[in-house]
Amino acid sequence: MKFFIDTADIDEVRKAADIGILDGVTTNPSLVADSGRKLKDVVLDICEIVDGPVSVEVTATDREGMLEEAREFATWADNTVIKVPLTPAGLSACHTLAGEGIDCNVTLCFSANQALLAARAGARFISPFIGRLDDIGQRGMGLIEDIVQMYSNYDYIDTEVLAASIRHPRHVTESALAGADVATIPADVIDQLFQHPKTDQGLQKFLDDWNASEANSG
Ligand code: E4P
Questions:
Q1: Annotated catalytic sites, by residue?
Q2: Contact 193, 186 (CB under 8 A)
Q3: How far is the CA of 32 from the centre of ligand 1 (A)?
Q4: C-alpha–C-alpha distance, residues 37 and 66, integer Å
Q5: What is the CATH number of the domain that holds 21?
Q6: Which of 40, 87, 128, 130 is 20 to 30 A from 149 via CA?
Q7: Structural domains in the chain (count)
Q8: How many other β-carbons are positioned within 10 Å of the β-carbon of residue 95?
Q9: Which tens digits make up the pLDDT trace of 12-46?
Q10: Which helix (H) or strand (E) holds 179?
Q11: How far apart, in whole angstroms, are the C-alpha atoms of residue 122 and residue 93?
């Protein structure tokens, strides 16, 4: 499973890239607004650091407005992917952009049928939102499982399942078990993936034993 980071914070992108685990980045209008920076500045900075796909979301809600924004974003860097919402206008824009060789990430997916529509429209990625489904008492991971299974029934579907709205490490494990192609993960959850008390205790014991030993003297 590929690891994307879900952020518009350049320091978080750099930190994950430096560790060597980063395959791409997703942003959204809320994350960019939180950064307090201009969208283009954020995207150019991210694309300097990351070679993989960098998702940039349109804010127009009509097809022509989305196409105009998308074509502009596509000029910013070779690796921008256009995020469009799962609406009729968004899928129509996705279909047109795919025909122009511009990759789309169809976002705000909350049902298996929506994912089927996105694949038909030529999406490179479909983004089912696990956490937001959990928030309303549904099982978000069930949606990932359904989409992975549905897509695997058809050889001609090459849309990648990108598990989004990830809230904790268990979501990452279960996305991989379900066969998601990608998980886009917030920085605090990436940090948690490294952690295990037995790792810390084991390392401390090795260091204590080493420092107390003859092998370390002279
Ligand atoms: C995905 O691309 C979205 O940016 C993101 O995963 C949304 O997550 P949230 O539900 O935690 O806002």
A1: 83
A2: no
A3: 12
A4: 21
A5: 3.20.20.70
A6: 87
A7: 1
A8: 16
A9: 999 999 999 999 999 999 999 999 999 999 999 99
A10: none
A11: 10
